[in-house]
Amino acid sequence: MSTIDNKSYAKVVQNGVQAVETVQELHSTVYSAEDIFVLAHDQDRSDRIAEAANANEIGIKEEGMFSAIANLFRSRGDELRAKIVSLGFTETEAAFYEKELDLGKVLVIAKRTD
Asked: CA-to-CA distance for 82 and 67, rounded, in angstroms?
């Protein structure tokens, strides 16, 4: 698990099963369900994993209205990078994680909101 700052963490896992396990581990720490996000390259896969893991997807609350609307016109890769950046990651980090998602991996992010 890599630290972005004192409040944010990201972990790339191989599949949905590992994502669910990682989310469960995070639930047993200081992170609440509202603090944990799951992201996969395929939107339907993100939906299924988030539901199974009791985690969130990155939405308007995290992205802001402008970015959420802009995502309607972006490629999936650009959209994923924008979502990752919206949680406090740099453009370089977002590009790295997006490449991992391209390979079929899943990104689990925990960001404290308090």
From this structure: 7
